[in-house]
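Model it.
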Amino acid sequence: MSTSAASGRSFFTRGFSTDSLDDSKTAGVSKTSGFSSLRYHIFAKPPMGLSRLLILTALASLALVGSALSGKKLPQVLAHRGASGSAPETTLAAYRLALALKVDFLELDVQMSRDGQLVAIHDTLVDRTTDGKGAVGEMTLEQLRRLDAGSWFNRAFPDRARPEFAGERIPTLEEIIQLARPARAGLYIETKNPELYPANFESKILDLVRRNHFEKRVVIQSFDARSIEKVRRLAPDVPIALLVETLQDDPVEATLRAGSRELAIKYNLLTPEIAARARGRGLALTVWTVDDEESMRRMIDLGVDRIITNFPERLNHLIGR
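Modeled.
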């Protein structure tokens, strides 16, 4: 299946419902507290004198968004490590919150435990985002699952802290697939540090994707061109993306050499010239990691297909979702 900008959509569209998602489970919080309350308080009955003002303000805001983006292609929303600006990154809490925001894709980094299990965590070491120490690949799944992957967030971001985040665990790839399944969201799976893991690392990921019939709901991405090329050889039907973080090599040509139909580039490297060349070669455009509204607007102006962000709620607001 092509993910090119020309084809525009298919699974890679915004047409997937998360209506089946139980919002009461979102990040383990209630509908009337914390971040989730933003989605419900707008429907609460305001004082009589304020009601008309709120309605007029909301209509004006929607009109401004519509006017500013009129005629522009709106990007798909990709939640970077989940809604990781508002919940502990790469935990089920962050992914539930992202799904409640009706994102198009969940983004995650996959590594392998010592006993060959596929787990979702960004860093090679567990030190930053858990209460443990050591390398992911030197621990068994059981050891990794004992770690608290949520409390650090409460300490680092007290203004966004929630007691429910304490005790969040490092999830497996299987768990995230099962979480995404009823919401029908797609997955952007990064093969993280593939050189650290056995030669069957990519094939294990693909086997799990196939067993769950997720071939048409994933993009496999990596900074490692060899890893991407291996995925292409093993599964030509699975979309791939080479992550580009420098301009030392021509990003368009590097992407094409890797066999990818998608240029996934660090957002501040994307220029009008690169965007035009990518489109001219039939490549889809994905940018990462965009968190401020001004940069989001600039990416939309450049016609990108997908925006990866830690704050999907901000992008949702900007595009009028």
